[in-house]
Amino acid sequence: xxxxxxxxxxxxxxxxxxxxxxxxxxxxxxxxxxxxxxxxxxxxxxxxxxxxxxxxxxxxxxxxxxxxxxxxxxxxxxxxxxxxxxxxxxxxxxxxxxxxxxxxxxxxxxxxxxxxxxxxxxxxxxxxxxxxxxxxxxxxxxxxxxxxxxxxxxxxxxxxxxxxxxxxxxxxxxxxxxxxxxxxxxxxxxxxxxxxxxxxxxxxxxxxxxxxxxxxxxxxxxxxxxxxxxxxxxxxxxxxxxxx
Length: 244
Ligand SMILES: [Zn+2]
Ligand SMILES: [Zn+2]
Prior knowledge:
By secondary structure, this protein is an alpha/beta fold. It folds into two domains: about 1-40, no CATH class; about 40-240, Rossmann fold. It contains nine helices and six strands, in the order αααβααβααβαββαβ. The protein has helices spanning about 1-15, 35-40, 70, 90-100, 105-115, 135-140, 145-155, 180-185, 215-225; strands at about 80-85, 125-130, 165-170, 190, 200-210, 230-240. The protein has a four-stranded parallel beta sheet, with helices on both faces. A two-stranded antiparallel ribbon has the order 3-4. The structure holds zinc ion (ZN) (2 copies). One zinc ion binds near residues 20, 22, 33 and 34. One zinc ion binds near residues 23, 33, 36 and 37.
């Protein structure tokens, strides 16, 4: 049987060679990045805030339980956040086609990087919830980019994905607005439809990018009101201005 499978795999590899989803260079595993593309990203793999994952400059000599100023001031809403990389020119090159041009094949390396970003945590979510998209936006885009990332993450934790407990109203794009305006724009945008599925649960929220954290904070607010006992978040990239 193994022999037959090996022949079949070599045949598939011959017909559809594994290529880097970003630049089409040959790679050994389907869906993985080549070395050049991998190193172009600013992965958050050094010192970071133990609570919200904010990356610190690599020159910092930190204790393992260091908090960023926001978390140290008790202003963090979510119980824990991690992101795989910083939102910069390199991650933008992947994010924009992923989100707006149907390059859904990127979900594989992105979700793997997000699972990797959670490796130093001991969270045990009961459900994984992609940040809901308004129906109008889902209709135009054809997919929720957060759901594609959430599925492999839910599989990695061995827990179900929740796609229907919370709905989102349509609002115009926020563009480049201040964090206060972003928070106002997302206020009351989510509605919990099935609080019985939320009550007493630890929930891991999944999104592609975190800008100010306003979306996560608003979801945390409505989920906690519905009885969630912990709300975590994971994103592929996050806006983070590194201090040197
Ligand atoms: Zn590449
Ligand atoms: Zn923090």
